[in-house]
């Protein structure tokens, strides 16, 4: 057979060449499929059937095959070439990818007999790209600076931008400026207020950033926390800040107008531009490329954003490269210990850098609020692309971030016309919403080619070039010139030297004074002396937390809540406290080993905690038995779901050490698949479930290919991007819609597990058992089902992790390289972990879809899912599945309590009303009395609360609490509440071994 | 021993031809050739930075080589990943010991064995079904710990070990993988003399008895040149200076010049001006303290001046006074004034406990942070007990209706509980140093 001989031949090729060979075959196949409909996929009979939904799937699969195989070719060739051509190739490969996409569109359109018109307006799209670039850069510059000096990715960076915007808005509403702002248009731009807003935005946001660094980050830094922990802490800080902004300003969108003249139709520059029109597919005598002249108006406020942000980043670059402060910052970034030894006050540098990075974002936020209507949610939508930007430009490099921001901004703006052009022939008018996804897709593609980003590649290229020059003995360019360029540079730098001196003279007292204000941070005093160091030495790093104490502390409150009798609790607890607390070294303590890091102690505490929390949930007041059980069932269902998702996260992050921010990606696949198969294709629920597990396994395994070699933060960005891609696709892709109304967003009307049985017999049966006197709600069944799933998965995963495989996973977490050098295939092990974790998460996602009975894109937003699961993971403890159940329970319980609060808000007779009332009163006091009048004018309060009395929106209070839980847990118990139990097997044949030694 | 050698030297464990590794413009290893025969104990010596570790890294597949060829037991390692090279029979250790730190020592030893049952997710369940595999591994691990005389640390976490102990565990871990060729990178740096000697004799015995080959980087010339190894390779500046038997190397002038000769010379160490740094830090500290005191006084004044805002003012007064007095105490060299103040605080707390559990917790926390740094856990214990007691008291006084949930009480109680998480183990029994 010809095929056989081809395969045989391919076996003798090197792996790279074999890959190339197959990729070319697949590319040809995909082209054949797109252009003429003869692809391999076309042989599947269902896909060629004349049914629109499936036809869509057909071209989609072919396009993915085409682009995927083309991408593999580009990637493989990049590995095969070497020398100068390799660098040239790497830098031009983005162009090749563009050509690939163009070719794909052309073939597809020709195959369909349609045409796609893509028209680029050079000025319009160019300036839109610049606006995007400036927006991303406003966050990315601060982000990359924090990364460089403090070595962690700061999730709170976007909140600084939003904070800056709200400072500007508050100033606008204040009694001082509102009269000027609300004045009628007069054609003259007032600059005063804008400049003051920018200054206030920079300074106040900078102070906020510095404060966060002082109060939160410094503690962790002094403890020597890993970048991963710092990243999670900053996530907590971000949640707290976002919640505060929400509580103060609500979720309505506001535009910052420093002077009405900015919004006049004449406030813009007219720019002559050319529109390039490309026609793909069937052209009918229309040329492929057409040109037309046009005029584009660039609004001044947009120009202000571009100029302001780029100027501020340029100033930052100068600061970094040519002032003493910048040198110090770079010194601290490279080696904090050495910097400290050479007389640099490292803490001051950290303070300054957090001030600068937050201030830059705040400044950008002021300008950004002029171009876009702000609400606290906006921050998150820019943060993720900004992360993509800094990863692309190599983490820690400000120059790289500038270049990458330009690239990403341009890609976003240039993808818009392409998507609009494709939307019409492909029958997808909403596809233009996908431009939000483009930065992520581009990032993932680039990371596959250059795993360390653009800046690193540029650096390598530079070194290579220098080496070549040294090798060939070339004379440096400078000696050929008639004058010495170095001297010229010196002269150029002179004014900067003066500036530098002035800067130092101003900044040093400011920083000094700011440092004086650190009085609330007690540990700082010690960090100056060596006491902190000695403290570290005295206490063993991994000392077992006192489980006995945990126990004796948990007993009284447990009895307390269950029996509702303080007398009994005191009778028991007094002798306990006397024995265990006041006499810490009494003899019997050494007999009982019930630490949280021992199996028995851990289990006891777990059971006690679950009993306590269940009792708490049970004691929340409700109308009657049926609603109470309904609430409990919902609690159980959510516990099952969150427990499963936390276990998946635990497998990826806790056991294997891959920082996964994309749990919701896998969960989303689960819920979309089961619901879509049922609602759109009429499958039974169990068929969907049976399909989704292998799908998740495969996707998890495949994900390992591009990501196995990525470092921690890159992996985190890639996974969070994947979640976002699916979320946005769910909002704009018609194939992912089914149910009652196919034009609406989301999927509904799908079969729920055991629904027919429940409707016919189960509901009444349950109702009888629980004594409702009527049919039980369906939630009870799904609650039970979720809990059963949770327990089953828990048992299976525990058995699996107790094996050598589980041990290898943890070894990879500790040190990947060493594990590989002891003969374990890191890639396969990681892929296995990813696959199984993905399957667990997909099961959780499926349960979620069944619980909600309808899925919408909002359920996939990280705030509602991923971040909560991370909180559960942090609270529970790394690599401890018990901890995951505990953490999930805590989060879910909190959810339930807040639901109760929400009912209490409108019901003065409710038992919890006093708490809600207290919250409202506190917020009122903070907003109306505590905040300085400039920011809390009547107008500002009215704008935020729409004239109603000040009330605390409880979902935001919850967000605040989740953030606080993350931060506090990491502060108080960095290993979590129920940490991992180390494996300590006893020796079995002691006698035999001893004999051998003699 | 000689007879055995003749038999064993027939096949080649490691063959390196023209191996080179360049970092940018630096040629760390520049085209070296050598081989290690089966059953041979070979030493690799040379001054620091001459490319020994880089050679190891390129052989084991950690670094991609610039050119050259490496064969392990006759098989080329071209395009092989480290774990594939390991499967040819090669195991290596790292110069800076890298154990799996959050795992116990015994667990560290259980990871390397080859062909474990249950090393992938599909067969993982076999471990529970057939516990005898695990038992076998455990027995072997205990045996190795015994030969290295470290059974007493088996249950410690690897991150808790001292430098010398880590080195021993590292060797034990390498032996667990049953290597046929062992690459040791300074295995006994930091291990006490007698133990180092016994490790060497153990390695020697291992080579003689089991016939494995060892390539060792070591700075202990006593061992390399006088006692153990069969063959020595001397490297200098990325090239091989010479190779031969220990006695040949000892007599080679060039080697003595390049490496051994310099060993005994004491270099003049530069004198660091430590005084300046210390002075600077003391000055900064003093200034900071003064600032803190002044700010404390200001806060106090401010809190008293501003119209009463309830607990915020009270907290301000408390904190301000605390800061002021504690700084004053430091400057007046009164050792115990902080303790005095802590006692005062306690009284406040008890009074306060009845009204505001949250602020109470925050204050406790702030004192605790100060106190725990001074190794004083008793305060912490006291405070936690106060929290718990006050929680109970709160419940007593607020036990109005059955329908109301005692949130204040629960919060206070939980605060006390949470505080216990931080009490270091050594203060409440358990293992002490």
How does CATH name the architecture of the largest domain in chain A? Orthogonal Bundle
Strand content of chain A: under 5%
Query: Number of helical segments of chain A?
Result: 39
The poorly predicted ranges of chain B are 1-10, 262-279, 306-312, 329-340, 349-359, 369-378, 398-403, 423-433
Structure description:
With 998 residues, chain A is mainly α. Helices cover 71% and strands 4% of the residues of chain A. In chain A, the strands form 2 sheets. Chain A has a 3-stranded antiparallel beta sheet. In chain A, strand 2 (268-281) and strand 3 form a beta hairpin. Chain A is globular and about 85 Å long. In chain B, helix 13 (311-331) runs antiparallel to helix 14 (337-353) and helix 15 (357-373) runs parallel beside helix 17. The chains are: A mainly alpha (998), B alpha/beta (433). Chains A and B meet through helix 18, helix 20, helix 21, helix 22 and helix 23 of A and helix 3, helix 4, helix 5, helix 6 and helix 12 of B.
Which descriptors apply to this entry?
heterodimer, A: 998 residues, mainly alpha, ABC transporter involved in vitamin B12 uptake, BtuC, three-stranded antiparallel sheet, 5 strands, disordered C terminus, B: 433 residues, alpha/beta, Rossmann fold, six-stranded mixed sheet, four-stranded antiparallel sheet, 17 helices
């Amino acid at each position: 057979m010809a095929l056989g001989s081809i395969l045989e031949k391919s076996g003798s090729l090197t792996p790279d060449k074999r890959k190339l060979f197959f990729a070319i075959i697949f590319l040809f196949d995909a082209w054949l499929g797109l252009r003429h409909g003869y692809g391999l996929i076309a042989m599947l009979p269902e896909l060629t059937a004349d049914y629109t939904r499936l036809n869509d799937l057909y071209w989609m699969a072919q396009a993915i095959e085409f682009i995927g195989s083309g991408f593999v070719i580009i990637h493989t060739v990049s590995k095969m070439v070497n020398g100068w051509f390799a660098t040239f190739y790497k830098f031009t490969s983005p162009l090749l990818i563009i050509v690939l996409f163009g070719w794909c569109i052309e073939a597809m359109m020709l195959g369909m007999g349609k045409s796609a018109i893509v028209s680029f307006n050079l000025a319009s799209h160019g300036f839109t790209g610049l606006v995007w670039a400036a927006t991303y850069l406003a966050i990315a510059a601060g982000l990359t600076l924090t990364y460089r000096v403090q070595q962690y990715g700061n999730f709170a960076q976007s909140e600084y931008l939003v904070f800056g915007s709200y400072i500007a808005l508050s100033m606008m509403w204040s009694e001082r400026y509102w009269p000027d702002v609300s004045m009628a248009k007069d054609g003259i731009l007032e600059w005063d207020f804008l400049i003051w807003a920018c200054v206030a935005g920079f300074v106040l946001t900078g102070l906020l950033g510095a404060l966060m660094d002082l109060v939160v980050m410094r503690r962790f830094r002094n403890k020597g926390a890993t970048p991963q922990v710092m990243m999670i802490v900053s996530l907590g800080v971000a949640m707290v800040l976002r919640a505060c902004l929400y509580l103060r300003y609500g979720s309505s969108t506001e535009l910052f107008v420093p002077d009405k003249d900015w919004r006049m139709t004449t406030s813009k520059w007219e720019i002559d531009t050319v529109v390039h029109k490309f026609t793909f597919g069937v052209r009918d005598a229309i040329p492929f490329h057409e040109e037309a002249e046009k005029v584009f108006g660039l609004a001044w406020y947009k120009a202000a954003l571009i100029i302001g942000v780029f100027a501020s980043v340029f100033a930052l670059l100068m600061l970094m490269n040519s002032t003493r402060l910048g040198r110090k910052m770079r010194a601290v970034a490279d080696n904090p210990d050495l910097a400290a030894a050479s007389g640099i006050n490292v803490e001051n540098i950290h303070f300054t850098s957090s001030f600068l990075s937050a201030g830059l974002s705040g400044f950008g936020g002021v300008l950004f609020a002029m171009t876009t209507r702000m609400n606290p949610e906006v921050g998150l939508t820019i943060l993720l692309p900004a992360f993509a930007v800094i990863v692309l430009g190599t983490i820690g490099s400000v120059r790289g971030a500038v270049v990458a921001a330009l690239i990403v901004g341009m890609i976003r703006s240039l993808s818009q016309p392409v998507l609009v052009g494709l939307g019409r022939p492909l029958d997808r008018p909403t596809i233009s919403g996908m431009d939000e996804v483009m930065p992520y897709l581009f990032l993932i593609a680039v990371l596959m080619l250059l795993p360390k980003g653009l800046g690193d590649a540029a650096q390598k290229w530079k070194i290579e070039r220098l080496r070549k020059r040294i090798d060939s003995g070339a004379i440096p360019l400078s000696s050929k010139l008639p004058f010495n360029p170095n001297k010229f540079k010196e002269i150029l730098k002179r004014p900067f030297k003066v500036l530098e001196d002035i800067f130092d003279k101003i900044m040093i007292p400011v920083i000094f004074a700011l440092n004086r204000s650190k009085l609330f941070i007690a540990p700082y005093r010690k960090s100056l002396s060596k006491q902190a160091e000695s403290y570290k030495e005295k206490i063993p790093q991994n000392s077992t937390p006192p489980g006995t104490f945990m126990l004796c502390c948990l007993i009284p409150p447990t009895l307390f809540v269950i029996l509702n009798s303080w007398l009994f609790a005191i009778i028991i607890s007094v002798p306990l406290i006397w024995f265990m607390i006041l006499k810490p070294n009494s003899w019997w303590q050494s007999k009982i080993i019930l630490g949280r890091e021992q199996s028995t102690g851990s289990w006891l505490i777990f059971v006690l905690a679950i009993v306590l929390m269940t009792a708490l949930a049970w004691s929340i007041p409700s109308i009657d038995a049926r609603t109470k059980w309904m609430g409990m069932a919902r609690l159980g269902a959510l516990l099952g779901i969150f427990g499963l998702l936390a276990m998946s996260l635990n497998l990826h992050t806790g056991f294997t050490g891959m920082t996964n921010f994309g749990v919701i990606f896998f969960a989303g696949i689960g819920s979309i698949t089961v619901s879509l198969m049922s609602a759109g294709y009429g499958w039974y629920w169990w068929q969907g479930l049976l399909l989704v597990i292998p799908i998740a396994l495969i996707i998890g395994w495949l994900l390992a290919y591009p990501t196995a070699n990525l470092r921690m933060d890159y992996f985190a960005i890639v996974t969070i991007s994947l979640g976002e891609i699916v979320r946005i696709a769910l909002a704009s892709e018609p194939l992912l819609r089914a149910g009652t109304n196919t034009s609406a967003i989301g999927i509904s009307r799908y079969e729920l597990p055991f629904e027919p049985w429940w409707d016919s017999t189960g509901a009444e049966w349950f109702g009888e058992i629980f004594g409702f006197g009527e049919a039980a709600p369906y939630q009870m069944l799904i609650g039970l089902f979720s809990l059963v799933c949770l327990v089953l998965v828990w048992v299976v995963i525990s058995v699996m992790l107790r094996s050598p495989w589980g041990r290898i996973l943890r070894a990879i977490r500790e040190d990947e390289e060493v594990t590989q050098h002891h003969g374990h295939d890191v890639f396969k092990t990681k892929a296995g972990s990813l696959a199984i974790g993905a399957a667990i998460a997909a099961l959780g996602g499926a349960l979620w879809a069944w619980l909600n009975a309808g899925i919408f894109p909002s359920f996939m937003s990280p705030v509602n899912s991923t971040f909560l699961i991370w909180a559960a993971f942090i609270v529970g403890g790394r690599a401890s599945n018990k901890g995951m159940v505990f953490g999930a329970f805590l989060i879910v319980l909190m959810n339930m309590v807040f639901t109760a609060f929400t009912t209490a808000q409108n019901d003065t007779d409710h038992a919890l009303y006093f708490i809600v009332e207290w919250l409202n009163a506190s917020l009122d006091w903070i907003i109306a009395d505590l905040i300085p009048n400039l920011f809390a004018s009547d107008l500002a309060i009215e704008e935020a609360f729409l004239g109603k009395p000040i009330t605390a929106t409880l979902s935001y209070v919850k967000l605040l609490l989740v953030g606080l839980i993350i931060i506090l847990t990491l502060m108080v118990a960095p290993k979590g509440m129920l940490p991992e139990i180390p494996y300590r097997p006893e020796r079995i044949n002691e006698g035999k071994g001893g004999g051998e030694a003699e | 021993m000689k007879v055995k050698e003749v038999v064993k030297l027939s096949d080649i464990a490691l063959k390196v031809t023209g191996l080179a590794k360049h970092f940018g413009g630096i040629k760390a290893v520049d085209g070296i050739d050598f081989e290690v025969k089966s059953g041979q104990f070979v030493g690799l010596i040379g001054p620091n930075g001459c490319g020994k570790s880089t050679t190891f890294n390129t052989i084991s597949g950690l670094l991609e080589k610039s050119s050259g060829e490496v064969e392990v037991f006759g098989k080329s390692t071209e395009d092989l990943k480290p774990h594939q090279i390991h499967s040819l029979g090669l195991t290596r250790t790292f110069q800076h010991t890298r154990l799996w730190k959050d795992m116990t020592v015994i667990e560290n030893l259980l990871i390397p064995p080859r062909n474990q049952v249950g090393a992938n997710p599909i067969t993982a369940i076999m471990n529970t079904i057939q516990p005898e595999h695990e038992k076998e591994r455990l027995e072997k691990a205990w045996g190795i710990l015994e030969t290295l005389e470290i059974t007493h640390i088996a249950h410690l976490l690897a991150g808790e070990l001292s430098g010398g102990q880590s080195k021993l565990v590292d060797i034990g871990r390498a032996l667990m993988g049953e290597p046929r060729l062992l690459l040791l990178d300074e295995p006994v740096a930091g291990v006490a003399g007698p133990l180092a000697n016994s490790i060497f004799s153990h390695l020697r015995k291992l080579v003689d008895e089991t016939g494995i080959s060892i390539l060792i980087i070591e700075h202990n010339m006593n061992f390399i040149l006088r006692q153990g190894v069969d063959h020595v390779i001397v490297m200098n500046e990325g090239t091989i200076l010479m190779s031969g038997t220990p006695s040949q190397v000892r007599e080679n002038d060039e080697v003595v010049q390049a490496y051994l000769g310099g060993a005994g010379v004491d270099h003049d160490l530069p004198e660091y001006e430590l005084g300046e740094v210390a002075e600077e830090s003391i000055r900064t500290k003093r200034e900071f303290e003064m600032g803190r005191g002044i700010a404390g006084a200001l806060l106090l004044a401010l809190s008293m001046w501003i119209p009463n805002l309830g607990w915020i003012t009270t907290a301000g007064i408390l904190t301000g006074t605390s800061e002021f007095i504690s700084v004053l105490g430091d400057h007046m060299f009164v050792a115990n004034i902080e303790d005095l103040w802590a006692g005062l605080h306690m009284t406040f707390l008890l009074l306060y406990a009845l009204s505001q559990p949250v602020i109470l917790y925050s204050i406790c926390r702030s004192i605790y942070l100060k106190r725990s740094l001074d190794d004083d856990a008793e305060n912490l214990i006291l405070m936690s007990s106060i929290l718990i007691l006050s929680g109970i008291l709160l419940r007593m006084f607020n036990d109005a209706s059955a329908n109301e949930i005692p949130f204040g009480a629960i919060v206070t109680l939980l605060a006390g509980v949470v505080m216990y998480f931080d009490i270091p183990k050594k203060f409440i029994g358990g293992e002490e140093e």
